[in-house]
Amino acid sequence: KEKEEKKEKEEKKEKEEKKEKEEKKEKEEKTGFFSSLFSKKDKKAEAAREEKKDEEPLDASGSAPKPAQSWVKTLTLKCDGTGPGMIDDMQAVLDDSKVQFCLVKVPVGSGTFARNKMIYVEWVGENVPVMKRAKHIQKGAEIKEMFDSTATYACSSKAEVTLEDVAKELKGTFVTDSGSFSTADIRAEMEKRIKAAAEAPAVPRGPRKTAKDMNITAEFVLKELRKNLGRFNWVLLEPSASPLKLFNAGSKSIDEMAQHLDETRVLYGLLRLGFGSGAFRRTKWIGVTFVGDKVKAIQRGQELGQKGDMEGVLKPFSNTLEMQGAKEVTVPAIIGRVKPFLVIDDFDKSKRKDAAPADAAPLEATEVTDEALEEAFREALAEEIAENAEYWGDDDEQAAGDDNRSYTAIINDIKDGASAISWGVFSYA
What we know:
Shape: extended
Strand content: 15-25%
Number of helices: 15
Strand order of the largest sheet: 1-12-2-3-4
Order of helices and strands: HHEEEHEHHHHEEHEEHHEHEEHHHHE
Largest sheet: 5 strands, mixed
């Protein structure tokens, strides 16, 4: 009986093992069938993609073009109007049935403490349809980023588009370095700047290319910069004395240089500043050390440790300036700091004659106002720009009317401290 039970158990076990093997084999056969089926489908799909790829036109690099992003077109803007003066003057251009985007340059402080605050104004008219409002909400962040402003102000009524209303909303933005604040002072400073810009020599308004755009070497830039009226008047280098690593360089001096800074970097440079023109022109070369506001402590220590080597590369220069953040890179701030070192012949325009006497004594820059010194700087810059106009192609650019200029060029004009244009209103193209 025991033998029979044992035999029965063994037979049962054999049957179970056999059944398990058969099930496993059946499963493998099914899996293989479906894998083969999907593999054939994948191969057909891949062949179709390759065939389609062969039909696509190639770009200049030999690669098939990437699909266009649907929002690129919607973010193209057109200019509805620009002008000098305060934010109040924009009211005539604002449309109650449109979504518009504005950039306003507000002068804060004067003299050495003069700063320009860029205010982005988002206008959604009272009669804008609900669907258009919703569409704008989706793109608002990208639009705002394009203007790169100091602060943002949103409004939908023209009664809110006044300096007083904006100042009330953004009071902290307009406090000067000296701690004071007054809308009357802002209006007075703006009127003074508009008058000075109108009297200043004409300067081509469009942005020029920079060395980075032109694939030019640091050595060529430095050679031109050391000339009295060379094609470049500022350069910024990365902290590397050998080999030299060009960060960027340009030809429109302090205002242009300020637009190409990086707050996360330590940069070394050379700045050519002219005062006066013709026989009365005097030129100074200033060594520059720029330390961005967002530079980390370890990076700051390491890269400032190369200051001696970098100054050795950039010499000769008459003086050096260290600037902490882009807020210190303005025409009034820099001129205020170099003023003690300047001596300019026949400087005071109120005393200038058609033909100055040969023995006219030079004036110390400290004997004249900051405004007169800045006027002499603008005069010298206009002379440099005119000297190199053909090289930079200014004639064609200056002849172009506002209607033919890109919105980015107009925004750059507003941000230019020397430009009389202080506001612009834009909308979807």
